[in-house]
Design brief:
The chain is mainly alpha-helical. The protein contains 13 helices and 3 strands. The protein has a single domain, classed as P1 Nuclease (Orthogonal Bundle). The chain has helices spanning 2-12, 25-37, 42-52, 57-60, 63-66, 73-78, 110-122, 128-145, 173-183, 189-196, 201-208, 212-229, 236-265; strands at 163-166, 169-172, 233-234. The chain is globular, with a radius of gyration of 18 Å. Pfam families: S1-P1_nuclease.
Length: 285
């Protein structure tokens, strides 16, 4: 798996100023999808049924990475930039928001990809195939936005070029956060999701009082802290220090994904209870 990821990095590194590997790995994305499923309203579940085609959010969560093997120009040359954002001045993260994105060609980063997907799902003018594409990408991108190194530094490709060891095995910082820390728990995605699920109304309200740029700003601050500590020999102490952060990011990603989908598909979903705060994720129809 690691060799495959590094090969992909080498292939596209010359094409993009920054490239981040698969976020969270398959298990991480599926955990977020599974957590989200527990927080969807009945109306949202009904609206998602024809779009998911008998799949679950957990199942479609990895689609946007799996499709990178497709030989079309979009997947080979254009889709990579959908997965990340590099902002040197964190105070300007919100200046990258563009609620009006309605074309794939306009997407320059993960924020654009999220708003393109929202707008496509809310538009009466888009086809069901376009909506299915948008849903699958949106599920994935919400996950990506909660992986700290998808808002990391461009110069090291979101931690991909920073060499570390994980219990003596050679790897890189990005791979450590997207796969190694989660896999070290020795849990299936459904077991992991069960362990981090919450019905605490205060926690849920706090998570939903946000918008996509906030999620990426949180990720940026986490990655910046990890960068500054520059820990390269990873073992039990590192896991003890950072696994609580990983669990919180996965929990936040799942609850916020549900909140976003409820906002898109259920007009009666209550802001900060079932849906994100209304003002910041209203798509242009």
């Amino acid at each position: 798996m690691l060799v495959k990821k590094l090969s992909v990095i080498a292939l596209v590194g010359a094409l993009f100023s920054s490239f981040n590997a698969v976020a969270w790995g398959q298990n991480g994305h599926r955990i977020i999808g599974k957590v989200a499923e527990e927080h969807l309203t009945t109306a949202t579940v009904q609206a998602l049924t024809p779009l998911l085609e008998e799949s679950s959010l957990a199942q479609v969560s990895t689609w946007a990475d799996e499709m990178r093997s497709n030989d079309s120009e979009f997947w080979r040359k254009k889709s990579t930039k959908w997965h990340y954002i590099n902002v040197k001045d964190a105070t300007k993260m919100h200046s990258h928001i563009d609620h009006s994105i309605n074309s794939k060609e306009q997407v320059k980063n993960i924020l654009d990809g999220i708003y393109y997907s929202i707008n496509t799902l809310q538009s009466d003018a888009t086809s069901i195939d376009e909506k299915r594409f948008a849903l699958r990408f949106l599920v994935h991108l919400v996950g990506d936005s909660h992986q700290p190194f998808h808002a990391g530094r461009g110069e090291d490709h979101g931690g991909n070029l920073i060499k570390v060891t994980f219990f003596g095995d050679k790897t890189n910082l990005h791979s450590t956060w997207d796969t190694r820390l989660i896999e070290n728990e020795r849990l299936s995605y459904s077991e992991f999701a069960e362990f981090i699920k919450t019905s605490n109304k205060t926690i849920i309200s706090d998570y939903l009082n946000s918008e996509p740029a906030d999620w990426l700003l949180e990720s940026h601050h986490i990655s910046d802290k990890v960068y500054n500590l520059n820990e390269t020999e990873i073992s039990y102490g590192y896991i003890y220090k950072y696994m609580p952060t990983v669990r919180i990011r996965l929990q936040q990603g799942g609850i916020r994904l549900a909140g976003l989908l409820n906002q898109i598909f259920d007009k009666n979903a209550a802001p900060l209870k079932e849906a994100l705060k209304t003002s910041n994720v209203v798509a242009v129809k």
